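Would you mind giving me a polypeptide sequence along with per-residue structure tokens?
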Amino acid sequence: MVTEGGAIAAGVIGAIFDKAQFDAKAIMPLYLRLQHMIREAVTSGILHELEALPGEREMAEMLGISRVTVRKALADLVSEGVLVQRRGSGTFVSQQRGRIEQPLSRLTSFTQDMRSRGLSAESQWLERSIALPTPQEAMVLGLSPGAEVCRLHRLRRADGVPMAIELAVVPRQFLPDPEIVGASLYAALDELGARPIRALQRLHAISLPEYEAGLLQVPVGSATLFIERVSYLPDGRTVEFTQSHYRGDTYDFVAELYVMPTTQRPGQKEARED
């Protein structure tokens, strides 16, 4: 679980945010100088995981720069995953963890993925309701007019760190009550005999809007992977339409590729790869 650590000792603060060293890097823009000092302190072990940095005002006064410059330097480091910001608490050194690799060839739930990596999967419900589908949802799910859906909108965390925002839409014929969904949607669908066996996914990179960036605790405009998934039952019916935002600084989606065998016609020379 990610929890905030203590404040940095006064002597350490003075060593990290040394005005003479800062001025000596005059060839660099001000915000890049501050980024370099903080990043170097983290990589060298002077700053430890989950330690709290001084406030923006204090850093600005120590280095003789504006708070706007400090804010820009911190925002870039947060986007890189070096730092993390907690509303009302301050700025902290991130808990250093490897990036999560997610195979594109397996249909698994977020809960399964995190547990398989020894992480604690958590959800914060943003919406759990019964509603009429949007035109896009009705078309993707193949619904008749008047059919209702369950809308399951969640912020997903791993060991307390926001990882993804998911909006899953399931026809009520397969999920009559959204309240029965606990930690895992797929576990609930399995109990109802409606677990999907295959899915099609489409993903592309976008910049995070303000609302989603706030939920994922990253700067507005940060890179994210937007994924649309359509899942199917064994008989071909569509059971799930999910749209997700995955943090670009924590996720790598991996696909295994194969060379397709060539078919050789009579009298044709064997195809050769360059």
